[in-house]
Amino acid sequence: MEFSPNNPVVKLCLQGMAMEESGKSEAAGRLFLQAWTDATDDLEKFIAAHALARHNSSPALKLQWFETALKFALDINDVTVAGAFPALYQNIAKCYEELNDPDEAKRNYELAVSTRDPVSDTGPFYHGTKADLQLGDLLRPGGNSNYRSEVVMNHVYFTALLHGAGLAATLAKGEGRERIYIVEPTGGFENDPNVTDKKFPGNLTRSYRSTAPLKIVGEVTDWIRQTPEERQAFRARLAKSKGEIIN
Predict the structure, then answer these.
(1) Would 131 be classed as within a structural domain?
(2) Domain tally for the chain?
(3) What is the full DSSP assignment across 79-146?
(4) pLDDT over 90 (residue 238)
(5) Among 50, 98, 108, 112, which lies 20 to 30 A Cα-Cα from 83?
């Protein structure tokens, strides 16, 4: 299972989040319920249940949907959802607090702490760019952000998903052709806080950052490019984003 913004269930959730941001709560709720109805595998059900949990204001309903999301995350139990467990347990604990069940709240807070493990993703890892690089070259922090050109990046970013690297290549500065390089981190790395536990739980995009260089060890030449419509839609979402880059 792999997260993709082009997945129909993910698209419904993104549309629902846009409705929430514009104050159309009822329309958002209908879209999240449609996502849940349309979900066919554990990852889609996990994503839709989490969206419904976030959307509901009733502690009992929030708890129901967060525990449903947790069930599917436990069924998946791989690197895709590993980063979601601490926040899931913490949100469940908060619901129990609001429902006056301190024992269950305490138990889930403890689970939130115990699941905060170091990143365990072993790749392979990719970096999307328009730069012409060679095997053995090192990608270092210090470049300007592709999302906010005035921001100098203290980290170098990469992903374990080809689709994500392709999107980064699309947005990269320069006139060269879009390229995806296979990279190896030369030091420790962490979840990218710009995406982790933001719109979606955990780090579904398997996006990471490091202060250490990335070594170019190969290039992917056969990958699916985004359609012009997909590029336009993403750029439109990016233009509307009011969030700051965490660096």
Answers:
(1) yes
(2) 2
(3) TTTGGGHHHHHHHHHHHHHHTT-HHHHHHHHHHHHHT-PPP-----EEEEES----TT-EE-S-PBPS
(4) no
(5) 98
DSSP 160-213: S-HHHHHHHHHH-SSSS--EEEEEEESS--EE-TTTTTSSSSTTTT-EEEESS-
Q: Are residues 110 and 143 in the same domain?
A: no
Contacts of 6 (CB under 8 A, 6+ apart): 163, 230
Query: According to the model, what pLDDT value does residue 54 have?
Result: 96
Which residues 6+ apart lie within 8 Å of 183 measured at CB?
A: 125, 126, 127, 139, 158, 214, 215, 216, 217
Q: Residue 20 corresponds to which tokens in the numbers above?
A: 């929430």
CB 126 within 8 A of CB 165: yes
Q: Tokens 């719109």 correspond to what residue? A: 199
Please give the single-letter amino acid code of residue 139. L
Give the model's pLDDT for residue 43: 97
CATH of the domain at 227: 3.20.170.40
Q: Which residues contact 88 (CB under 8 A, 6 or more apart)?
A: 50, 66, 69, 70, 73, 112, 201
The count of other CB atoms within 10 Å of the CB of residue 16 is: 26
- Cis ω on the peptide bond leading into residue 124 (within 30° of 0)? yes
Q: What is the pLDDT of residue 13?
A: 97
Instruction: Kindly state whether residues 110 and 129 are assigned to the same domain.
Output: no
